[in-house]
Amino acid sequence: MSLPHALLGLLNYRPATGYELKRTFTQSIHFFWNATLPQIYRTLKQMEKQDWLTVSIEHQDGKPSRKVYQVTDQGRAEFQRWLMETPEIPELRNAMLIKIFFGHQMDSSQFVSHLRQWREYHAGLLKRYEDEIVPLVDHYADRTGASKDVPYWTLTLDFGRRQAKMVVDWCDAALGQMRDAGGEKPNQQKEAHRLKKGRRKP
User: Fold this and answer.
1) Closest listed residue to residue 22, CA positions, set 14, 30, 31, 13
2) pTM score, whole prediction
């Protein structure tokens, strides 16, 4: 996925400023595709050069003028072309899982700390989905008049909630193994059991 196509999709709902696009991005697409405000502005400038959007200046009394972006017919055609493409298989890159993979070479307390931090992050994410994002679905449906899009928005929301819950459950299971091992990592427990068995007399 490219950032221009995400912005085309948002502008397809209604014209917006760069700041408004960033705010909407943060409350929706951000959960599966991140972008900073400078990246968004640079991309909008490139999209304007490609005639995918137009820019108009709205003057405001006592406030700075607004640059409002609006998608063009050429931009809509490009967005539809992109939607028809077969999605790329996502490349999985997870630094936390690399640390878990080499967990035997880590201090046990640090290993547990990583697990707890990862759990805390995803538990917070899950709470944010419930408390903040669920109400925003109806808000943006009313604001854009895109009520028919709501089932598709909620599909992506459901994916995020399920994924966050899965990580929380997995961390709970991993922390449970650590407690059962008396603070040792699971592979350390197995090694201790093997050594103990090797010392038994025939």
Assistant:
1) 30
2) 0.72
The larger pLDDT score, comparing residue 138 to residue 5, is at 5
Q: What is the mean pLDDT of the chain?
A: 86
Give the type of residue at 27.
Q
**Domain ranges for the chain:** 3-84, 95-198
* Closest-CA residue to 158 (of 40, 66, 31): 31
Q: What are phi and psi of 17, to 5 degrees?
A: -85, 170
What is the DSSP track for 26-80? HTTGGGTS---HHHHHHHHHHHHHTTSEEEEEEEETTEEEEEEEEE-HHHHHHHH
Domain 3-84: assigned CATH number: 1.10.10.10
Spatial distance between the Cα atoms of 92 and 87, rounded to a whole number of angstroms:
15
CA geometry: angle at 186 spanning 121 and 202, to 5°?
175
Contact by Cβ (8 Å): 76, 12: yes
- For the stretch 106-130, pLDDT in tens is 898 999 999 999 999 999 999 998 8
